[in-house]
């Protein structure tokens, strides 16, 4: 996969996460500027953390102005199209899943390209994928989605990062196979939401009472 | 504007934001050490993020000990002078506005001096200006001021960063013009608080019910 | 103290903080993956911030895979052994204190080894020590322990960082003296919890009403 295709997938991931941020901004009653800022934080935050960890010059989000387009487009799209804020929750989950799927693949590939070893690349890919969403939810005073025990979030991201690493090392990475890995992650995430697939709780012998959390 | 004058404005910005952090610490019932730490986080956090993004050696706040003075002075000032914690909210807004005004200018100039392009410098200036306040409010479990839809916060910061960039490129930057840009930002922020100037909501067709937020 | 002994103390600190993160995950009803992620964030977060500030290549947590063992061990330990989640609060405080004690010493020594001056090293040591806990509590929507006015948290960390710097400069640093500094910090923190030692409030003339906070 050449660099331009990776950039396209990355920008698409920024856009998806930015939409999730702008949707949350509408639900919280933020204004258009707050929507743009939260969208930018969510869309660009994971990648900025990744680039800071890679420690190879200023993050792309600050040096390459094309990264500013997806958050601006997301804020405009949400501003003009969202009619029913209360019902936008489902959309938020879908766009968040799209961002997760794209970033666990592109984040891993960027780390591999920067010369990190496979394990570090998988970790950085997952960090890129979950980082923006954690910033979004913490800023808006919610518990991050990645910690919701009722569905799968980090596991699909780890699978996507693992697939990307495998494809890269086997020399099978093309735009098509990269996009397929993304689709797998997206499907796993959405199916876990639909059918309530979940991991075991953090303590084996503890059964939470109904509805109890936090 | 020579480097020393920029340093003075920057230290003043640290002091203003640090006072806002210490005032919030008193409202939340933190102790003096917590006040010093929250003041340091708010005063130094935005600049540390900026320096990390610039990726040019350890952040100034850690290497230049003079940056420790403003937070210490802020914690002491708040400790000895604040009588009525409940009424300190207005003061907090004022000091926060002062920090915002100073940092959007100094942050932008530091980025320009480090060789960033104008757009990246404006983004970094705004990040410096809003970063410390976001850290403050998220740490204290409040929704960050920058997302409050009832007044303007990021827009004055963008204007200040734009003015600083313009002055720099036109060769008109002196201590006086830099300070004037700061005053413009401060005035815009305070006037928006006073007269309720605000941006449109994040979704055009949504009208929040009275008092509804989050 | 040679590098391997410092690594061992550092890994032990990661483990202690990771256990505190996993215990909080059980209390919040997170699942096993969320426990692993929160444990990793808490255990590795402070050190990642320190390494990013030192700006000397990618953080050790991403490049040295041995750092992944303590969070994995912590999540497994908590999963298999915690029976009564409601009563695990005391354990959480103990492991958090252990992490604090180890990290204020190892964080300071890592900064000194990287060539930072004594004051910057103490600041970075304290940042390492309190950083992971702040990430933990903010992510889980709690006010960070470091801001709790009912006991001492940052002061023991400053003492430990100061002791480590002193031992280093006097040439008295060995595994034994380093471990002793750690024990001093741990003891101060636990005694302050037991006997309610605390610092003065952030504003001298303010007496909070009983139970009032935030």
Automatic annotation (TrEMBL), chains A, B, C:
Annotated protein name in UniProt: Glycine transporter domain-containing protein
Membrane topology type: Multi-pass membrane protein
Gene Ontology terms: cellular component: plasma membrane
Keyword Cytoplasm carried by entry: no
Compartments, as annotated in UniProt: Cell membrane
Superkingdom per UniProt: Bacteria
Family according to the record: Belongs to the UPF0126 family.
Pfam families linked: Gly_transporter (PF03458)
Keywords, alphabetical: Cell membrane, Membrane, Transmembrane, Transmembrane helix
Residues annotated as domain Glycine transporter: 8-81, 94-168
Originating organism: Arthrobacter psychrochitiniphilus
Entry keyword annotation includes Transmembrane helix: yes
PANTHER family given in the database record: INNER MEMBRANE PROTEIN, UPF0126 INNER MEMBRANE PROTEIN YADS-RELATED
């Amino acid at each position: 996969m050449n660099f331009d295709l990776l950039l396209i997938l990355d920008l698409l991931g920024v856009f998806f996460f930015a939409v999730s941020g702008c949707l949350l901004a509408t639900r919280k009653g933020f204004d258009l500027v707050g929507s743009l800022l939260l969208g930018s934080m969510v869309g660009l935050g994971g990648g900025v953390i990744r680039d800071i960890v890679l420690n190879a010059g200023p993050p792309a989000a600050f040096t390459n102005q094309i990264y500013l387009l997806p958050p601006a487009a997301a804020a405009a799209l949400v501003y003009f199209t969202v009619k029913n804020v209360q019902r936008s929750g489902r959309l938020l989950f879908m766009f968040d899943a799209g961002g997760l799927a794209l970033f666990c693949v592109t984040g891993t590939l960027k780390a591999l390209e920067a010369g990190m070893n496979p394990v570090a690349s998988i970790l950085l890919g997952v960090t890129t994928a979950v980082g923006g969403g954690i910033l979004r939810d913490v800023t808006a005073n919610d518990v991050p989605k990645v910690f919701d025990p009722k569905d799968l979030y980090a596991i699909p991201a780890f699978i996507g990062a693992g697939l990307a690493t495998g494809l890269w090392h086997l020399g099978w990475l093309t735009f098509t196979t990269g996009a397929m890995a993304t689709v797998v992650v997206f499907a796993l995430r959405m199916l876990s939401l639909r059918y309530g697939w979940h991991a075991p709780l953090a303590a084996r012998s503890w059964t939470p009472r109904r509805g109890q959390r936090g």
